[in-house]
Amino acid sequence: MTAATRGRRRGSPDTRAAILAAARARFAESGFAGTTIRGVAGDAGVDPALVHHYFGSKDDLFVAALELPVDPRAVLAEQVVGPVEGAGERLLRALIGVWDDPALRPALLAMVRRLIEPGGDALFRGGFLPVVLVPLGAALGVDRPERRMQLVASQVIGVIVLRYVVRADAIVAMDVDTLVATYAPVLDGFLAGPLP
Amino acid sequence: MTAATRGRRRGSPDTRAAILAAARARFAESGFAGTTIRGVAGDAGVDPALVHHYFGSKDDLFVAALELPVDPRAVLAEQVVGPVEGAGERLLRALIGVWDDPALRPALLAMVRRLIEPGGDALFRGGFLPVVLVPLGAALGVDRPERRMQLVASQVIGVIVLRYVVRADAIVAMDVDTLVATYAPVLDGFLAGPLP
């Protein structure tokens, strides 16, 4: 199959791959705020309009560069956004639903490992936080979403590491209801409780 | 300086390194329970008595193989063991004290990254948990220390990742008292609260 028979909309696989590689390098080096579609296009040797055409907005390009099996913004919008009451439970159920799917887990694990490697701080602070987490906090209507979502992340990342990365038996053994009973009060406190 | 002038007690650096390399390989492959001093000694081509002489018990050998700048058991025994009331605060203060020391942090970061890499699950479940964490829970007198210490770890690891690995600004900016006010209630709930 040639590039032409795949249709112009998907673009040449080589061009798409070159844009994604350029985007990953730029986001890692300059963070989300310091990266422009124009700069990525220049690095990839294509017109900026082509980047928009293939990938949409800069947010979309960032999420595409993460190479996740699901768009976390879509999962959160469908399953988590709503009243802040119950948000901890909804977030946990959405998270466990995605992570407990064996088809999705390898790519999710790869992303967590990239976050923790040297350079992963830019990926988190410069991208995942402003593109995915802070908008979720804003959509939940919490005050100080920047701070509260970092507290939420500090518990959620720990649960992910214990349950899916190091597979600690007591955390692996918990069913979804037990996980919710254990962690939703912590998350609700971080989302809506008093901040020290 | 020859090995002889360094004194017999420290041992030949080559022999010590060979024992540590063999220990790391065994612990990673067989976990803590499945590793014996005799097996490590055989892999390193030395007498088991020499392993005991250089490194002490199997617990001590495991901690030595982690190549940490401090022995976590000593820090916990000195600063955290005591009544379960206030244990969350003592644990956080000990943890932050060690991690905020720039001389210690590179080796601690290296250990966290090893935990999260493929194979790190054996290091955690087969070693760090039974050698360091569960004995701490037992020393604090909690019921079901195996389960409660995994809950504690699920919050502590998240704080470490956010503050020291991805350096999320709101978590980095918290002073020790604010971290304690934020996270000690969570840890105290995991240590002494009702379990779902």
UniProtKB/TrEMBL annotation, chains A, B:
Entry keyword set: DNA-binding
DNA-binding region(s) in UniProt: 36-55
Origin superkingdom: Bacteria
Single annotated GO MF: transcription cis-regulatory region binding
Cited Pfam families: TetR_C_16, TetR_N
Keyword Magnesium: no
Domain HTH tetR-type: 13-73
Gene3D superfamilies listed in its UniProt record: Homeodomain-like, Tetracycline Repressor, domain 2
PANTHER family listed in its UniProt record: HTH-TYPE TRANSCRIPTIONAL REGULATOR RUTR, TRANSCRIPTIONAL REGULATORY PROTEIN
This protein's name: AcrR family transcriptional regulator
